[in-house]
Structures are given as structure tokens and as C-alpha cells.
Design a protein that fits this description.
- Pfam families: LRR_6.
- InterPro entries: Leu-rich_rpt, LRR_dom_sf.
- This is Mitochondrial ATP synthase regulatory component factor B.
- By secondary structure, the protein is α/β, with parallel strands linked by helices.
- The protein has a domain of 164 residues: Ribonuclease Inhibitor (Leucine-rich repeat, LRR (right-handed beta-alpha superhelix)), CATH 3.80.10.
- The chain has 11 helices and 9 strands.
- Strands 2-1-3-4-5-6-7 form a 7-stranded mixed sheet, with helices on one face. A two-stranded antiparallel sheet has the order 8-9.
- A hairpin with a 4-residue loop joins strand 1 and strand 2.
- Helix 4 packs across helix 5.
- The protein is flat, with a radius of gyration of 30 Å.
- The chain starts with a helix and ends in a 7-residue tail after the last strand.
């Protein structure tokens, strides 16, 4: 009897066993990927642990050749170089904080996830049927920790925020937003207007007053917003030029219901001496040149 048991154990050991660990790991709640989709997203989890100084140096250096070049470069302590280095660090930090989080969107939905993304910049958001909301530093939001279809964004106010093109990626799939206020944003430029026009097709009110990096070329993208009826371009020096005024005229010609604020159109003198023949289509303009 014992010999038969040994033979059975040998046979079972010889049969290839199914990799249960690999199958179970796919559905194991301890698995990071599954745990991310099952556990409600929390605002504090969005902050990752910063790497150390040498880890950051090695990561930024890349290959060994680049690392040797980095270590052999003399340190320049001039004020202009230090200022340039500090500005690059601030720019990299801003891009990291404004990064589009696909996992957060999958857990919370586009509307609630966008609210968290804009709150990190100090912006305000307005949900349908609710008051304006702004998250103060050190406080937790009262938004649900999972997707809720009743929370639909209607308006966003990012005035004065240092938002970049990367931060505007949070505007994806926000079909209910009809108002966007972006006054005095130092980094809003023509590329930002392009992503606004491509994502917020239901936009009705757009305020980019004080955004001094916007040029007439960026206004061309706004023709793709069919329901836009109010556009504030106050305190935009590049739009007060002849090209800017011409672009505004073309926008209003393309969208007759569009009301543009902050642009002073030149007075066109009226000449009562000009006669137009409807039949021939010829204008009879008396000569103003002295004989």
C-alpha cells in the first residue's frame, strides 16, 4: 500500500502542474494593478516619494558617457546660471505636478479627476447644481472617492495659475463645461488655445484676458468651437495689432453670434460722395486729387 502511494506521488510529480500562482496573481488583491482599480482613489496617494539626490543625478545622466560628462563639467556659480538652473527645476516640477493621471481618471472619471488636477494648481471648479469649490492646502475634498455620474463639471476658473500645455490635458472628455476663465495665466499660449478648442467643443464663454503670450495665430483655432458666444481678449498686447484685429473680424465673420471684448476696432470713415450703381456694379468715386 505504501509503495503504491509512493508511485502515485511520483506520477503526480511528473505531471506538469498548472501555474496557479501566475493565474492567481492576476486577480490577487495584493497585486498593485488590481488593487489600484478596486480600492477607491485617494488624493494623498497621488504624491509619490521623491528620489534622493544621487538617484536623480544618475537618472538624469542616462548612459555612463553622459554621466562622466556631467561629473567632469565644472560647476558654474554665476548668478545667471543659478537662476537658469532654478527656473528649469521649477518648470520640471510644474510639469510633474500637472501630469495627466490615467489611473485616476479610470477610478474617478474625467470630471472628478479633472477637479483634483486643477485643484493642485489653486483653481476653482463648478459642478452642476453645486457652488464653486476650491481645495485649500492641507484639507481634504468632500468629493466621492469613486466615479459618480452626478458630478458633472460646468465651469472652470484657472485665473492666475501657472498652468502649462500639459496641465490642460485634464480637459479631456469634459463635455459639460461651458465656461473657462483663464485670466492672467503666464504660460497660456497659442498651443494652449488649440487644445482648448479641440477638447471643449461645448464651450460658450472663454476669458483669456491678461494672457500676454497669445498671438493672432492662436485665435484661428477658436473657430472650431461652434457655441462660443463670449470671448474676452482684454490686456493682450499681441491682439491689439492690425493682425489681431483682422483675426477678430474673421472670427466674427465665421461666427456671427460671437461677442469679442477688449478689442478696439478702428473707426472706418464714411464717404457720402461714393455712389454705387446696382445694375453695373460700378462705384462712382469723385476724384479727391487736386487738379
Amino acid at each position: 500500500m505504501f509503495s503504491s502511494g509512493r508511485s502515485c506521488s511520483r506520477i503526480l510529480s511528473a505531471v506538469p502542474q498548472a501555474s496557479y500562482s501566475s493565474i492567481a496573481k492576476k486577480f490577487d488583491p495584493r497585486n498593485e494593478e488590481v488593487n489600484r482599480t478596486l480600492v477607491p482613489w485617494q488624493y494623498s496617494e497621488n504624491y509619490k516619494k521623491r528620489p534622493g539626490f544621487f538617484a536623480g543625478v544618475i537618472q538624469s545622466a542616462g548612459t555612463m558617457t553622459e554621466m562622466i560628462k556631467f561629473l567632469s563639467t565644472p560647476i558654474d556659480l554665476r548668478g545667471s546660471k543659478i537662476t537658469s538652473w532654478y527656473e528649469k527645476k521649477l518648470y520640471a516640477r510644474d510639469l510633474e505636478q500637472q501630469e495627466y493621471d490615467a489611473n485616476r481618471v479610470a477610478s474617478l472619471g474625467s470630471n472628478i479627476s479633472a477637479a483634483h488636477g486643477f485643484w493642485g494648481l489653486g483653481a476653482r471648479v463648478l459642478f452642476k447644481g453645486k457652488a464653486w469649490m476650491k481645495l485649500d492646502p492641507g484639507k481634504h475634498s468632500n468629493l466621492p472617492e469613486e466615479h459618480d455620474p452626478e458630478f458633472v463639471l460646468e465651469a472652470i476658473d484657472i485665473s492666475g495659475c501657472a498652468i502649462h500645455y500639459e496641465g490642460l490635458r485634464h480637459l479631456r472628455n469634459l463635455n459639460g463645461v461651458h465656461s473657462l476663465t483663464a485670466r492672467n495665466c503666464p504660460h497660456i499660449d497659442d498651443w494652449c488655445l488649440d487644445i482648448i478648442a479641440s477638447e471643449l467643443l461645448g464651450l460658450e464663454v472663454l476669458d483669456i484676458s491678461g494672457c500676454k503670450r497669445v498671438t493672432p495665430r492662436g485665435l484661428a483655432a477658436l473657430k472650431h468651437i461652434p457655441n462660443l458666444h463670449t470671448l474676452d481678449l482684454s490686456d493682450c498686447p499681441a491682439l491689439q495689432t492690425d493682425d489681431g484685429i483682422l483675426m477678430c473680424i474673421l472670427l466674427q465673420d465665421y461666427n456671427p453670434k460671437l461677442n469679442i471684448k477688449g478689442i478696439e476696432y478702428p473707426d472706418i470713415p464714411q464717404n457720402d460722395n461714393v455712389k454705387y450703381d446696382v445694375k453695373t456694379g460700378v462705384k462712382d468715386c469723385p476724384s479727391t486729387v487736386a487738379p
